[in-house]
Amino acid sequence: MSIDKYNAEGYYDPTAYEAMTVIEKEERALRAFRPIVYICSPYAGDTENNVKFAQRYSRFAVDKGYIPIAPHLLFPQFMNDADPTERKLGLFFGNALMSKCSEVWVFGEHISAGMETEIKRARWKNYRLRYFTKSCEEVQK
Questions:
Q1: What is the fold, at CATH topology level, of the domain defined by 36-139?
Q2: Domain segments of the chain: what residues?
Q3: 119-128 pLDDT per residue, tens
Q4: CB-side neighbour CA atoms (13 Å) of 70
């Protein structure tokens, strides 16, 4: 949107121009800000479907104006979740990323052991927790 220095009647109007310029800059800054959210959903078990769900949840966060962090989509690409040592390290990495997020979003009705660990940590650190169904509808807990 281009802001004109002249009013509708053709007169130079610097006060209105400056005010509208400031408002436009503020709106642009607000559109650029996206808080980071931690995506907490099952991974172990049916990993193929759980990955698809985590991708859907991440897309949902993007569509709502957030930046999603889903460690269970990243770390299993180069770490072995079946190896207890690597799984523990992956959970540690996830906790480090969680500390950078403004909220933790928990998805699904089933809370896995890994999710329970993440939720306990989020509560312990007093992070904001939000719960969603598999179909991305928010529920109060």
A1: Rossmann fold (3.40.50)
A2: 1-33, 36-139
A3: 999 999 999 9
A4: 27
**How large is the C-alpha radius of gyration of the chain?**
21
The predicted model scores a pTM of: 0.76
The residues that bridge with 130 in the sheet, in sequence order, are: 105
Token couple for 90? 């992956």
Closest CA to 71 of 63, 83, 59, 79: 79
Q: What are the pLDDT digits (tens) for 87-118?
A: 889 989 999 999 999 999 999 999 998 899 99
Mean pLDDT, rounded, for 9-32:
79
Yes or no: say if 34 and 67 are a contact pair by the CB < 8 Å rule: yes
**52: phi then psi, degrees, rounded to nearest 5:** -60, -40
Lateral strand order in the sheet of 103-107: 67-69, 36-40, 103-107, 128-132, 138-139
Looking at residues 72-84, what average pLDDT do you find?
A: 93
